[in-house]
Amino acid sequence: MEVTPDLLVLLKQLLEFCSREAEKRKEDHQAEEQLNAIVAQIKKILEAME
User: Fold this and answer.
1) Residue 47: what are its φ and ψ, rounded to 5°?
2) Is pLDDT above 80 for 21?
3) Structure-derived torsion over alpha carbons of residues 20, 24, 25, 29, reported in degrees to the nearest 10
4) pLDDT score, position 45
5) Run of H or E including 4
6) pTM of the complete model
7) How far is 1 from 10, CA to CA, in rounded Å?
8) Helix or strand or coil: residue 50?
9) Which pLDDT value is given to residue 3?
10) Dihedral, CA atoms, 5, 6, 9, 15, nearest 10 degrees?
11) What is the rounded distance in angstroms from the CA atom of residue 39 to the CA atom of residue 31?
């Protein structure tokens, strides 16, 4: 298979897109972990108040 300039451009675009999407997923995962920690803390506080 010949690597044409168009194919090279496409591969670079795919790489950039996938890298951005992977970073978003990482950020989403970190936010979810933080939210879960906050919820757990709130539950603990509420249970202690009862």
Assistant:
1) -65, -40
2) yes
3) 150
4) 95
5) none
6) 0.65
7) 15
8) coil
9) 82
10) -120
11) 12
